[in-house]
Amino acid sequence: MSLRFSPRAERFREVLRQSSKLLGMKLKLGLPKGSLQEATFALFQKAGYTFKVSSRSYQPVVDDETIEPILLRPQEIPTYIEQGVIDAGLTGKDWIADSGAKVHEICELRYSKLTSNPIRIVLAVHNDSAVQSVRDLEGKCIATEYVRLTKRYLEEHGVNALVEFSWGADEVKVPTLVEAIVVNTETGNSLRAHNLRIVDTLLTSTTRLVASDAAMADEWKRTKIESLQILLTGAMNATKLVGLKMNMPREKQDEILSLLPSLKNPTLSNLADPAWLAAEVILSETEVRELIPALKRAGATGLVEYPLNKVIY
């Protein structure tokens, strides 16, 4: 005789079966080691994830047992994703383009080691160089980490030049060792410090969350990656925003609200005293520093500014 279970017991058994299927499921996530590492950890912290890593370790610990993180050079992440070694990762558009790897781009995350500005991949020469365009580099030598990207760029312009791989410190090689370099720059400070000038920009790059086709075809991994997308973009949205609370007399409501930017609609709520209202609004940091004194002078009280971790649109 077969054993039968009540509907409630059957539902419980199904939950157990699904849990057992998910048991051991992990998303292998590549994170950039190096200059972007701390900025990446800070972004994940705002998104709700805490990463810890020792100075000599390449395997951080995260407070999410379904994520298996590994620190990798951002140059390697696209290739490892394409090969299926890892499921997803954060890397620059520049390294995706240089590697030529086939990856599924999930979203853009505009952050870098110093600012939220994109970086540029540029062709640079010494200030005293006669080179004015890429065509002047015919037969010359160029040092770069972006070998494939640079070769494609030269081919597009019909220029034959020697492209040699550089392990770094490219700026000091011009003009003694090479005629030009192709490097990434965020502010241009290092180029100016080495008396170099930009001839052309090959690419503008920002950080991207990318995944393998195989990971996106897996329902559990795709859902996990999409959840990361929501939380990370929410954290990015909140980067330069703050919340502002205040109380205001009803008789001055119109005057006070007129001070807020026209596109910002505050949430209003009644207070115990019917003569007063509470208002709450999301603003940029630069707007708030101008508004708070004006709001105070107009009669608002109990002004409280607070930071935001995530803003989901």
Structure, described:
By secondary structure, this protein is of the alpha/beta class. It folds into 3 domains: 20-116 and 207-237, D-Maltodextrin-Binding Protein, domain 2; 119-204, Periplasmic binding protein-like II (D-Maltodextrin-Binding Protein, domain 2), CATH 3.40.190; 241-307, Alpha-Beta Plaits, CATH 3.30.70. It contains 10 helices and 16 strands. The chain has helices at residues 7-22, 37-47, 77-83, 93-99, 147-156, 189-193, 213-217, 219-237, 253-257, 285-298; strands spanning 27-32, 51-52, 61-62, 67-72, 88-92, 104-109, 119-126, 141-144, 162-165, 180-185, 196-205, 207-211, 241-249, 267-270, 276-284, 301-307. The strands form 4 sheets. The chain has a 5-stranded mixed sheet, with helices on both faces. Strands 9-8-10-7-11 form a 5-stranded mixed sheet. Helix 2 (37-47) packs across helix 8 and helix 4 packs across helix 5 (147-156).
